[in-house]
Structures are given as C-alpha cells and as structure tokens.
Amino acid sequence: MLGLATGRIVVTSRIVVLGGGFGGMYAARALKRRLGSAAEIELVNAENYFVFQPLLPEVGAGSITPAHAVSPLRFLLRDVFVRKATVDSVDFERRLVTVFQGVQRRPTEIGYDHLVIALGQAADLSKMPGLEEHALTMRTLEDARRLRAHVIGQLEHAQITRLPEVKRGALTFCVVGGGFSGIETAGEMKDLIDRSLKFYPDIDPSEVRMIVVEFADRILGEMSRGLADYATRTLSERGIEVKLGTGVASATGTQLVTTTGEVIDTRTIVATIGNAPSPVVRRMGLPSERGRISVDRTLAVKGRRDVWALGDCALIALKDAPQGPRDYAPPTAQFAVREAEQLAENIASTIMGGTPQPFDYRSKGALASLGARKGVAQVFGLELKGFPAWLLWRFYYLAFLPGLTTRIFVLLNWFMDGISPRSVVQLHTRSVPPTRYVRYRAGDVIYEAGNRSDGFYTVVTGAVEMTRTDPETGLPQIRTIGPGGHFGERLILGATRRHTSVRAAEDTKVLVMDREEFLKLADSFQAFRDYFAPYMARHGMEWPPLGETEGQAAPTPVPVEKG
Amino acid sequence: MLGLATGRIVVTSRIVVLGGGFGGMYAARALKRRLGSAAEIELVNAENYFVFQPLLPEVGAGSITPAHAVSPLRFLLRDVFVRKATVDSVDFERRLVTVFQGVQRRPTEIGYDHLVIALGQAADLSKMPGLEEHALTMRTLEDARRLRAHVIGQLEHAQITRLPEVKRGALTFCVVGGGFSGIETAGEMKDLIDRSLKFYPDIDPSEVRMIVVEFADRILGEMSRGLADYATRTLSERGIEVKLGTGVASATGTQLVTTTGEVIDTRTIVATIGNAPSPVVRRMGLPSERGRISVDRTLAVKGRRDVWALGDCALIALKDAPQGPRDYAPPTAQFAVREAEQLAENIASTIMGGTPQPFDYRSKGALASLGARKGVAQVFGLELKGFPAWLLWRFYYLAFLPGLTTRIFVLLNWFMDGISPRSVVQLHTRSVPPTRYVRYRAGDVIYEAGNRSDGFYTVVTGAVEMTRTDPETGLPQIRTIGPGGHFGERLILGATRRHTSVRAAEDTKVLVMDREEFLKLADSFQAFRDYFAPYMARHGMEWPPLGETEGQAAPTPVPVEKG
Predict the structure, then answer these.
(1) Which SUPFAM superfamilies did the record assign (chains A, B) (predicted)?
(2) Fewest Cβ atoms nearer than 10 Å: which of A136, A148, B476, B560?
(3) pTM, rounded to two decimals
C-alpha cells in the first residue's frame, strides 16, 4: 500500500499475523522490531491475551491464578494493531482475510501484503468413542480453569456422597497421554488434591487414584530413557499409576475403558492427545502434510511468496532432505520463538529485496515438572533430576515469560502458594453445555424413578430400555427406544421427578437437553408445541398461551437416599 | 437425636443452616462456638465458598482477583459439616430438607432438629421488559467476573470496529440503581476503563459514557443528604452522569429506554435493583411479608419453634410495634452478622431450656466507595468524605474479612494494583446462554443480508419483517412473521451467511438458538428433522443419516465492511 511520509512516497507494507501464541506473538514483535514504521503490523487473535502454555498445568492446579499465567497482547505488542476476532476465511488471490469481531454479525475484511499463519493446532478426539463428549482438554486457559473447578468439584462430591460407586468414580482421575502436558497435568493435579484433602475429612488419601494412560511403552518420548524411567518411578512414589502400552478404547461420563480391556470408574478424563489442524486452517486449503501446512525452509508456504506459516500449524523441515520425524521442528515454544525470529528476518529481507534464509535450529534441551518440587531436565546434553531439575524448570520459564508484570505476578503466586494453603474455592462450575451428547455403555443406568427430571433425551445411536411400574397391575412395563426416539419429556407436564427408569440396552449415544433449554423451546417454538400437544392431551393438559409456560410443579414424594 | 457420650446419655441436636452468606456462615460459626460437641452443625450452600459481597465491585473492576474476594467455607467452618448442594424443598412436619448435590440426580434428604434459613434474596427484573434478558447483575462472584470480562470486551470491540453506532453503544455503560451496589459498581467500572484506555489508542476518553439511573430523587438513600450530594458531585467530576428521578422503561441488547423517554445506545446495563424472594424460599410457603419470611423478634419463624431465619431473606422488626421501614433490620452485612450472634444464642438457649431474647441492634454507620480513592462514610454520627472515607472503607472491610489468608491476599491485591497496570485480560467470554430470549424495539435490525448465519429464531411476541431481493425480478419481497413463526433456518442447508434481512415490525421478543445448538437438535431429534424435511426438499436437499449432520459449507461472497 502507498503512504505519504515527510514529503516523499514510501512503500509501507501491511503484514497480518493470524494467531497470538508463541509463534504469532513473537513473530509480530520481531517484525515490528525489524521493520518499525516501514510496515503496518496487525495481529488477529480470538482472545486478547497471550497464553504461556507451559504454566497451564499450574493454573489447573491453582498454584497460579489464571489471569497471572497470561499477558494481555496489548501489553506485549505496543505498536502492533491487535484485533480480537475469529478468522473466518482467507482469499489468497485478493489478499483479504475475513474475520468476525465480538458479537458483530457483519464480516470484516482485512487486506495484507504479507500473511503470517500461526494458528496452532486443535484437538481431535473423535477417533475414540466418548472421548470427545466426556474428556477435558488442556490447551487453553479456559481448559485449565475448568480442570481446577472440576477436580475440586469431585472432592466436594466425594466428601458428601453416601454412594460408594459415586465416591470411587469421583476420586479416580485419569490423564490420557504421557507427554509433557499429560505428565505435568497429572503431577500438578495430584499436588492440588494432596494439599486439599485436609479440608475433606471424609476422604481417605488411599481412596484417591491418579492414572496416566500412555499408548507407547514409555513416557516423555522427547527425553532420554533414563529420565523417563526416573519420572515414572517418581510419579508412582507419589501415588500416580502410569499404565504404559495402554490406549483408550472408549469413554463415558462415568467410565474409561482401556485398550487392554480394563474398565476404570472415573468422572475425570483429561485428554492431552489428538492433534489436528484447526478447522479454519483446513478451510484455507493450503498444501499440507500430516495435518500441517507445508512450508519451505524459509517458512514461506509452498508455492506462495506472500504467505508464511510457523509454530504448531506448520510442518517445518530442519534439513533439505528430511528423513524421519526428528528432521522436522517439534511443536514446542522453544522452536516457535526461534521460528518467529527467522520468519521476521525473511519477511523483512523479502520487502527490502533481499533473500530469505532457511530456518535452522537445534533443541537446547527439554524440561518437565513432576509436581511436588521434583522434575527432570535435559539441557545442553546434561541431565538433571529431582529438586534441582524442578527449580531449573521454574526459573527457566520465569525468565522465558514475556512481560515484567507477569513475571512478578507469577513469582508472587509461587511465593504465596509456598506459604499459604491451596484454595479450594470452586469457581466456574458450569463445565458442560446445556445441550450435549452423552455416551452410555450397554447396561448403564441413565436415570431412575425418583431422580430429578433434569433434561430431555433423544437417542442418536444405540437403544435404551424404559421401565415403569403399571399403576393398575403393579407389574413392570418395558419399552425400547431407538435412534430418533426420545424420552424424559414428562418435564413439560411440570414433573420434577422421574416416574420411570431408563438404562442403555446397548452402547448408546444420546443428545441431552437441560430442562431450562427444553422448556424455552416448548415455550416459544410452535412446531415443538404442536408435536407435543397430543402427548400433553393424553395427560389431560394443554399448552398455555405462547411465551407463558411455567413448567414448575410441586415436587412429588419419592424414595430417597439418607443424607 | 440421642448420642452416647462417656457413659451417660447426652442429647445432641442437629442444626442445619441453609445458605453460606453473611447470615448463614456467621450463624454456623456462632452455633459451633456456643454448642461445641453438644450439637451437630451442617451448612448447605450452592457454592463451596463464602462471598464477601462488599468487594464484588472491586472484583468486577479487576483490582481483586475473584478467588481472593472469597474464602472456602471449609476454611472458615472447620468443625461444621459443609455440604455443597442446592436446596430443593423442606418438609417442616418431618423435619427433612431435600437437596441435590453435584451432578447427582438422586435427591438427598437431611434431617434436622433446628433449621436456620439464610438464603438471601434473588433478583427479579421481570417488571421492566428486556431487563431480565439483557441486564447484567452484581449479586454473585460469577456476576462480578462476567461484568469485568464484558467491560473489557466492549473496549476491545470499540477499539477495532469501524461502525460509529457500534462504537457508541460499546462505550456507553449504564448502571440501574443508585444504592451502595450501584454507586460502587459505577465508580469501580469507571476506574477500570480509565486505567485501561492507554491500551486502546483508538478510543478517546471523551467517547466513554458512564450513567447511573436512579428512580428516587437522590442516591445512597441510607446516607445523609449532604454525603449523597457530595457523592453525586464527585461522581460527575469523574465523568459519571447520575440521572435522578429516572427509571427503566424497557431495554434491548443495544438500547436502554428511560421512564423520562430518553433512548440510550448501550451494550452494558448493570441492574442493581429488583429484590425478590429466592424461588426455593417461595416454595417453602412460610409466612411472609414484603417478599421476606416473617420472624418474631427472636428470629424464630412465626408459628414455629424449630425454624429460624435471618439475613436478607427475613423481615426482622427492631421494635415490638414497627411503624415504617426504618423499624426493620436493613439487608446489610453489618446487621446479618449481629443477627447471626443473636440467633445462635437463641437456639442454644432453646436447646438448654432457656428463653430466646429479641434481636436488638442499631446501625453503627455506613460506608461507600466512589472509586478513584474517594468515598463517603457515616460512622457513629461522624461524617467523612473523599480519601479518608475511602481509606476507612478499605480498612473497615479488610478487618471485617473472615480468614487471615483472605485478608493477606486482598491486601496484596490492593498493593499490586497500586503499583502495576490493571490487566485487560478478558477471561470467561461466554456471557449469554446458547438458547436465550432477546428483545427488539420496533424498527430494530435483527440481521442483514451478508451477516453471519449464527442462529435460529422463533418469534415469541410481536412480529418481524423479512426482506429478500427476488432473484428474477430484482424487486424486494417482504414477509411478516408473527408469534410461533421462525426464521434463520437456512443454516440447516449449510448456509454461513444470511440471504435476507430481518427487522422488528413492532416491539418483539424472540427466542434465539445458537447455530451449534440448533444443528445438534437437527442432528438428533427426529421430530425436528421431519418438521424441516419439506423445507429442505424445496431446496433440493435432504437429511444425512441420523447423527451425521455436518451443517458446514463454503462461505458465499457477500458485501462486507472494510477493516
């Protein structure tokens, strides 16, 4: 684009960076540093903050408060135009990015001369039935907050329930994946639980189970055997079971079934596996390999001179003729930051008419925290274990943190966490959407007579068996409901308790709609009302005028559990 | 109940406290202190933490992190059995409380000898059309977190939008109610905005409007005229407009209409008015006056010797023959704590066979922060203004905070807030439910051709006008949709952009269902699929097999706004 500056014509190029993670944020910084006013730089990110991924497990464990593990992008990128928006699509011919910002429904187009794609990767858990519906993930700050709230929720529930099977499930925590994220999450979660138990007198430490499930025959694949074995031993000393050579066969809200056939009662599954390209990157239709954008060694997208990619979303060869996976840049912060430097240099020299250089970097090592002030480290060929490794881990990341304020806050968090009890405040409790898919294994109870009428169910796949006691004969009546069928609609009659019991007749997937959601539709959507009108008539009821459904009634006496 | 202790029979009574606010938490504490092992004390609360209400505006403004403004009930009530559960109903004859705990659908019954009701009050905004659908509230910790995220979201949006009317609405903030909560919320919100603007270079301070709407002819009704006038002046010096004698006529997602006929473009309405009994208290059917439980002066519920009530949910006379409102205990923390002491003493003496005494207490004063280190205070007849009052406010509440750890954290928060910039990290962005009611005023645009197809709409009341351009003739075709009708269903055809424009033909209430929610139903609910099948057929499409709807398609080229 042309801009007029101090009397003479200067060419200002517009560089748009998509994504505000390690790759994108550091690229935007480096570009500004190199090009100054010679370029307009804009960064587009769905959140207005930069997440320091390595600290997520500590946020999940509550040793760092969420807001302190992140920095506002506007703090870190003073002279860059930061746009909080979601990327919809890119028109590479017209050099236009289409985004949606905030609640605004009108699309916004952003022009560019150079486009930098740093959109990272998304989770794809669809390969293992039930994992997508029932597993927590550890990719975003929200994920970490949700995990902490969920874990404390399990302790709260285990403390007061009188149902042994519920208590067992609540106190069994499973982590899928034995990489850095999985191991650190398990270690930190165990810390949180161990330090919190003193506030839950009715939970015996021996009742808590923490399990890491790893498909490979070892954990921490990026590290040496020796360190991996040490880590495994340390974890088991801390009461964390590591199941090697074990994958996930299927999952429900109450169970995890392993590929070795074991059935684990658990209400907590954290999945740290399953990388996939983010949907928007897939829609771009750029050349890709193994789910990542193909770039040449200068980080330019193959076949394009004005589109670049780096970080987890790009497949970056470290040699001209890469053989195995080790010849490609791993998806780590350490590499993303170095890639950002090279990319900025290459874009700058392209603009100035120079020649882009290939990205070349060798890992300086790896660090992992095991929780409880133990860790493993492999740096410049040296190997460290235990407390020293953990200390190195903390201070390496502290130094790595962008922004002085953030550093001070993180240090302060660590200090206070060292001298005060871990808070068991359970914030942010709503972790499931009001309309959601739920899986059941054959035989699972979906609900029982007397339970709270808390939702409306439709069968997607499989079949359920509904049992009620005939009021006249007193005999049980059984009805089977298959795909497309529904149950639980009695709540539109104002019922607050179930009069029937429903169990999965086979492995079944249902769509559950919370009571309030369902009643809103029944309240307002005519087709819905028409569909249920006959059912209501059979029960001697009819719809109130549109927009006035109450859906409330006095609870009916029911068999209950003693508190 | 009977319990055996050291050889002799001792009577242990079970006391169940419902609610963990100022009234409930302090009552449980005082009961334990007085009765020790002579009583089993249980506290039931929906959250596992105690909220220090007076600090909520500061949480909303980000000067205190949410987790630090609250204390886990388990920290504060070491020898009390704390149950995180929601109260469903009470059977006063059988002395049983029915609760639901966690995700458990089975009801749990809790027996009691004495029941203490301290469930506070709920918000009822239904009297003003649109307020319930579009106003934020400031009662819970979640409310405060949501407000902060919302305010920062408005700054983010105002910084990048190129639509003047959107920017104006995003930068206009309205608070309804000029009591303590309203005034402190407005003052703190203004602080947050003023301190954050340096990160939003495209927002001019003069573009920010903060408005307090109060129906009475003055604010802070609990304080002297002089202090109220000083507060009003101070607020207006800080750029906060106080509109007295002004109520809310109606509200939408983009506008607030006052009783004086003024129409204010705003996307932020914080309602601090509209007290109502909580639904569960209403269901209990206890004697009540003015929406509060009637108790005698000993805090026993009228007509019962084993049920007690205190705090905001109870109407407590301060004299035997109360005349005006001033003869009843105000709903403040100061009073709730004193009520808790008297209540504990009365239950103890009832158990020990003594005589309960009437509650008698006179306010020691009132304090309000105006933000920006200014406040007003009225203590022991003395009046303070400005900085001294603000300082007194902070230290009074710091001393008042239960739990040393919390005190230290709050102090630390204040200190760090004093020396570091206010973080503009926008956490917790989802503030609206995926299925929700939305109000429009006659003439409002609901969506325009080219907009994102982000939801399905049904008309509850009113009517909308849908306009499309006939592909053949090029002429506009207009269709009116009334109650029970729906629009926006094109998204089931895979559309990602609107092809029509819809505006409210009159004041209209619609039910909006987010795209994902709607597609889940279309994916799984046969009745839904059948209903839309003809519509799809008309467009030469049909449903994929149950459970496999994709609902995605390439975006179609559309007129867009320049970024």
Answers:
(1) cAMP-binding domain-like, FAD/NAD(P)-binding domain
(2) B476
(3) 0.93
